[in-house]
Amino acid sequence: YTVDVADAELPAxxxxxxxxxxxxxxxxxxxxxxxxxxxDVGLVDDATYDAWxxxxxxxxxxxxxxxxxxxxxxxxxxxxxxxFAPVEHAERMLSLDNVFSPDELREWCTKAEASxxxxxxxxxxxxxxxxxxxxxxxxxxxxxAATRGDGRIGEDVTVNAVRVAGIPERLSGDGxxxxxxxxxxxxxxxxxxxxxxxxxxxxxxRVIADAAARPRYDEEKxxxxxxxxxxxxxxxxxxxxxGLRQQLDKKSGLELEAGEARLASLRMYVHGxxxxxxxxxxxxxxxxxxxxxxxxxxxxYPRTFDDVDGVLAFVAxxxxxxHSVAHELDGxxxxxxxxxxxxxxxxxxxxxxxxxxYKYPPEEVQTRLLDIIVSVGRTGRATxxxxxxxxxxxxxxxxxxxxxxQDVVKAKGVLIGDMIVLRKAGDxxxxxxxxxxxxxxxxxxxxxxxxTCPECGSTLAPAKEGDxxxxxPNTRGCPAQVRGRVEHIGSRGALDIEALGEVxxxxxxxxxxxxxxxxxxxxxxxxxxxxxxxxxxxIVRDSETGEARRDEATGEVIRRAPFRRNPSxxxxxxxxxxxxxxxxxxxxxxxxxxxxxxxxxxxLVALNIRHVGPVAARALAQYFGSLDAIxxxxxxxxxxxxxxGGIIADALQDWFxxxxxxxxxxxxxxxxxxxxxxxxxxxxxxxxxxxxxxxxTVVATxxxxxxxxx
Length: 710
Ligand code: IVH
Description:
Elements (H helix, E strand, L loop, with lengths): L14 H22 L9 H17 L23 E3 L9 E2 L2 H15 L5 E7 L2 E8 L2 E7 L5 E3 L2 H4 L18 E8 L2 H23 L6 H11 L6 H9 L8 H12 L2 E7 L10 H10 L9 E3 L2 H14 L7 E8 L2 H7 L9 E5 L4 E13 L4 E13 L2 E7 L3 H7 L6 E7 L3 E7 L34 E2 L7 H12 L11 H8 L20 H4 L4 E2 L19 E2 L8 H5 L9 H13 L4 H7 L7 H11 L2 H6 L2 H6 L5 H11 L2 H12 L14 H5 L21
Parallel strand pairs: 2-11
Antiparallel strand pairs: 1-6, 3-9, 3-10, 4-5, 4-7, 7-8, 10-11, 12-13, 12-15, 13-14, 13-17, 15-16, 18-19
Helix pairs in contact: 1-2, 5-6, 5-8, 13-14, 18-19
The structure holds 2-(butylsulfanyl)adenosine.
């Protein structure tokens, strides 16, 4: 029974069904783990265990909100052998049940109050995204520190825990109980995490520099070794988990330096107590007061509320400011404050009934980095893109994300084949955060930036010395660049030709059939005729990445024949055979005809001149009145126009200096395009005439009924 984790076929479960199924699998997996640790019943063979794990992983991939920190997919299982000695917790380390909406939370609170038989005082805390730890103090002295493990047996990480800032080896004050288990969360603050990753990057560079100084230097090998030894950490939680569970005594040299830094970045906040027969206080909030007196680190965020509205307001407040807290949080933990009610309410098999975790929507998921491909955009820039196994993140399925340039790939430390962590920056643009280096098996390979353009084979080079970005210098003929420019011409900010979108641009410049494209460059755009459009078939490409688009459901490359239709039976009877122009082809020709008399500024934008967007184009058009006048102007005349300046003036002059650019203008004019403002009195004249809005800067905000932003 093997399941390809990345693409496991899942029946489409509703969230409720998926949750029930995940709970069922979790129960089985945890039972199997317990059995493995010495229980006598429930031992299962490895294949069954693996199949359960894969099914759970597949469910969590489809419904990331179901993946708790304590999910078997996230915790150390019995099947994974630990380098640390086992420690049995005096009292089980439970996990928390989750709710995902304010309504569910209110319902849970109401039920808890009903069970308690009276109104409850609530304690709200941030749910720290780290790993749980249990510190056992006997008469005020730390005797062991253990990870959660399977809840009953954890790993003994005392050697490392005593070096975590804030964890005391001896409690201050007096009157300490004979035994108390202090529970808390070990984490890395966001700022320290960033420093840690910067250090990893410096160490990777050192490894590569050292390798480069030796004979028989192999760049790819050096990069791979650097990424393996000092990976970028994907998120603070992974880094904290590995940081607490490392064997520093087995490390030396640079590895030791990195390990020490990782340990030094760890912090802890307490969030509860385990075995403590007779606590001298009546509420969880008071427990924190006492633990603070003993010198234990207590979070500054917990608050108490008399009613559920206060709790919900707290949840909403931190939903807004979760990114301004010093550590990562993935939700809010709501607890009944009175300790006497903890006993009364009791617990289920895995979680207390007196506490619940409200989970914010997930922002990060893990998926497989299948490949890094390089594609060339409209300006010739060669951009590496991550191609990933489809992953649902912040509400949509993501398959690719930009990696910007070869330096960013290096800085992120990802290898092809890695499990990676992915998030949506600002909840819109997918971003690769880094590898989950612990999951590497040695089959991963380093990315090597190609030296030639993947679409036309020209040698890639920086536009000028010192630029990081590599570009394809074949501006005129590179199919990727022509396709991008033609699409740009049709865009809303340029000639706004609705029929000229990404599919059409690809069909005109890079058809699957026929072999000769209708357009070699944009110069011929206004010369197109209907009969040129008939036989075109095309692969649909992403306008940003140039990658072939795939059907979301089937994953197949999308092919279309935008300009072709088969003759109807009636037409066939009339003797019509072979493909016929589609309505879309007819519309394109009509819209191109109409576009010939659009505003001059739109043509200026459509020419793809660097830095010339709608604002500069309007200023130039308004001042000069015609493309000829713009072309004839000196650099100083151009630069002096309000809203233009030296950089745009240079870009314009550089653009007109190329013959094939001038050819575009001439062919467009010959085809009937009007590159002037009718009745314009000539350069500068309009400005001299003045107007009611002359000299004013107008800022428009909000929205206007019936108008889009464009
Ligand atoms: S109370 C009886 N409070 O979240 C359970 N847990 O998903 C006691 N966590 O295993 C847990 N912040 O490791 C509690 N303020 C907080 C927490 C917190 C993070 C972790 C904890 C727990 C996991 C459950």
